């Protein structure tokens, strides 16, 4: 059975748009037979990485020296096939998500190679992770707004020698619903996200049409911008 380790890095946890998108994605994975464990970065008693000596690379490879609740998660992380990192765009990441990413450093074995013009490493044999996927939401209109977050997770994956299974991105995510609940367009987005999770487990990848259906514009750019600009009119300066 495919084992999935998922982290929701949103400070709003279950109530946020990150959860809305991530939960259906994980549901799709489970429908395809995966076993998914979901963790909230903000619920963990998490200390920042403080081992400047690269303990997890050169002193005790594959092991983290920081003693906190994240230690209890390493056995499950090591046994997982797919790592799902879910986060809102937060210029660029919520702090707790960055803390989690630093704690993924033991996954990397620093046996260096020069691949396509970049210094890269490989994954440590203690970890089984074969794919990393990013699930992300943001408030603004265009997909380029996710570039920094995508680059962070793609770069981490490529440095670890693990397949980056694609960014699952939902811009202006708050337009998936209104005062009355989910809109028809929002429901279609979530259905596509569920399909994406299913595809990743059942077929090994997510097709580009499904990714596009998750990310498609819900309003024209000018309309969204006007809406944001109207919201600040009530502030005197
Ligand atoms: C500190 C901060 C920085 C943000 N930066 C961006 C940004 O650069 N681009 C963007 O599209 N949204 C940005 N947002 C909006 C969030 O991505 C958006 O509100 C998202 O829905 C929050 O996730 P959540 O619903 O899971 O809490 C930012 C929000 C905060 C609080």
Question: Would you mind describing this structure in some detail?
Answer:
With about 240 residues, the protein is α/β, with parallel strands linked by helices. It has one domain: Rossmann fold. The chain contains 8 helices and 9 strands. The strands form 3 sheets. A 5-stranded parallel β-sheet has the order 2-1-3-6-7, sandwiched between helices. A two-stranded antiparallel ribbon has the order 4-5. It has a two-stranded antiparallel sheet with strand order 8-9. Strand 8 and strand 9 form a beta hairpin. Helix 1 packs across helix 6 and helix 6 packs antiparallel against helix 7. The radius of gyration is 18 Å and the shape is globular. Bound molecules: flavin mononucleotide (FMN). Flavin mononucleotide binds next to helix 1.
The CATH superfamily is identified as Flavodoxin domain
Strand content: 15-25%
Question: What is the H-and-E element order?
Answer: EHEHHEHEEEHEEEHHH
CATH class: Alpha Beta
Short structural description:
This is Multimeric flavodoxin WrbA. This protein has 237 residues and is α/β, with parallel strands linked by helices. Helices cover 36% and strands 22% of the residues.
Q: Could you name the key traits of this structure?
A:
237 residues, alpha/beta, Rossmann fold, five-stranded parallel β-sheet, two-stranded antiparallel ribbon, 36% helix, 22% strand, globular, binds flavin mononucleotide, Flavoprotein-like_sf, Multimeric flavodoxin WrbA, ISF_SsuE-like, oxidoreductase activity
